[in-house]
Amino acid sequence: MKKFLAFVAVIIVIYSIYIDLNFGTIPAISHASEVKENTKPSTAKKASSYKEIIIKPGDTVLSVVEEVNKIPLSVSIDKVINDFIQLNNGIKPEEIQIGQIYKIPLY
Predict the structure, then answer these.
(1) Where are the domains of the chain?
(2) Residue 71 has what pLDDT?
(3) Given CB 3.0 to 4.6 Å as the disulfide criterion, which of 4, 13, 53, 103 pairs with 87?
């Protein structure tokens, strides 16, 4: 009986891993909203507005963006990352260094 229960438990774990990897638990962003977001004429204006910030120990791009904007973000994390990369000449968020000045997008 113990072997049977262990077998059932293993099957349930494998099934839940399969579901999580293939479908996930977070809903995907619809493509229609991305297209709508990219066709707004004010997108270029928003991408060009920024604030220069000196990075402190423990700062991440997302934490600094939330701190600078002082409101919950209304844009996706992917958009924040892409805007950061564009404003900072191709520097990725994981490449930021303490004490350096970076341009943080305003939304």
Answers:
(1) 42-105
(2) 77
(3) 103
Cβ(103)–Cβ(50) below 8 Å: yes
Yes or no: is domain 42-105 CATH 3.20.20.70? Answer: no
Tell whether the model's pLDDT for residue 63 goes beyond 70: yes
Question: Residue 59 is encoded by which pair of tokens?
Answer: 């700062």
Q: Please, are residues 105 and 65 in contact by the beta-carbon 8 Å criterion?
A: yes
What does the mean pLDDT of the chain come to? 81
Higher pLDDT, 44 or 12: 12
Residue 23, helix vs strand vs coil: coil
**Helix, strand, coil percentages for the chain (3-state, nearest 5):** 55, 10, 35
Can you tell me the distance from the alpha carbon of 65 to that of 50, in angstroms, rounded to the nearest whole number? Answer: 10
Type of residue found at 29: I
